[in-house]
Design a protein that fits this description.
The complex is a heterodimer of chains A (89) and B (186).
Chain A: H1 3-15, H2 21-33, H3 35-72, H4 77-86
Chain B: H1 3-12, H2 16-40, H3 45-64, H4 73-89, H5 99-107, H6 117-125, H7 129-140, H8 145-151, H9 157-177, H10 182-185
Helix pairs in contact in B: 2-3, 2-4, 3-4, 3-5, 7-9, 8-9
The chains are: A mainly alpha (89), B mainly alpha (186).
Chain lengths: 89, 186
């Protein structure tokens, strides 16, 4: 694996707390001395957050598909009516 | 519930079709109770739909993270009721607060407001759909690298792992190029 990917792997292990105490200390020192590396770590953290947002957005789409089926297909007409009746005043 | 049933459920959640079946079953089993609960407290059908959707997301994330979750509707109803009280009863909780903010608080994570999700998705798509789906499978759906390799048809787990880091690098580069910050999405 090329060096830049090894660096991503190492940062991931550091962020996950998966490094040994010694390796983690070495990484902490590197991050303090190397601002470029620290920026990369921050960008990587943001990357993980964006992947989670992507995952949630995709899951939301899947749930919306199910909801659409339940509230539009004739097969589920009874279910839909049951729910609508709950909100009739 | 029996351990093997719980394992089956977790296996089912790994595929889109399995999740679809699970969500359908949960809607049929639990949504009437949640809707009834919300209706009796003056909420709308839309409120009930929003709360139920967020409950399913929380349930899913807890389940794939390996937390002990029951697969019956009562557990889901409990999450929905909790969300309802947080959203509408807590005097310290602004009525303006979006569902996403509550979800963030509950899950201890950060998330963009729903209306901005298209912006986030557009941005992420620049890293490539396949890359995003691969990263999602590993980091969000929490599939093992063996499962990721199989799903994305890599010959070896190692080549899938290398690809995962390449994709992460792409996302990271996108973050760098666009000098992204949370303010851009908030």
């Amino acid at each position: 694996m090329r060096t830049s990917l090894e660096e991503i792997k190492a940062l991931e292990a550091y962020l996950q707390g998966a490094l040994s105490t010694g390796d983690s200390l070495v990484m902490s020192a590197k991050l303090q001395l190397d601002t470029v590396l620290e920026e990369k770590m921050e960008q990587q953290k943001k990357g993980y957050e964006l992947v989670r947002e992507y995952g949630r957005a995709k899951l939301r789409e899947e749930i919306m598909e199910v909801r659409h089926q339940l509230f539009s297909l004739p097969l589920h007409q009874h279910f839909k009516q049951q729910i609508i009746n709950l909100f009739k005043r | 519930m029996a351990q093997h049933l719980l394992l089956n459920m977790k296996e089912n959640l790994k595929s889109k079709s399995g999740r679809g079946q699970f969500f359908l079953r949960m809607y049929q089993e639990s949504f009437p109770d949640v809707a009834n609960f919300v209706s009796h407290r003056g909420g709308s059908l839309e409120d009930a739909q929003d709360i139920f959707q967020d409950s399913l997301i929380i349930y899913y994330e807890q389940s794939v993270a390996g937390l002990e979750v029951r697969s019956d509707g009562g557990y889901l109803f409990g999450i929905a009721r909790h969300l309802w009280f947080k959203r509408f009863r807590d005097p310290f909780n602004s009525m303006e607060k979006s569902g996403m903010e509550e979800l963030n608080e509950l899950m201890g994570t950060e998330m963009s407001a729903e209306q901005d999700s298209n912006k986030v998705l557009d941005f992420l798509m620049s890293a490539g759909q396949k890359c995003m789906d691969l990263l999602k499978s590993f980091y969000y759906d929490q599939l093992s690298m063996d499962e990721v390799a199989h799903k994305f048809e890599y010959k070896t787990t190692r080549s899938a792992t290398v690809q995962k880091y390449k994709c992460l690098e792409k996302v990271r580069d996108q973050v760098k190029q666009k000098s992204l910050s949370y303010e851009d999405f908030a």
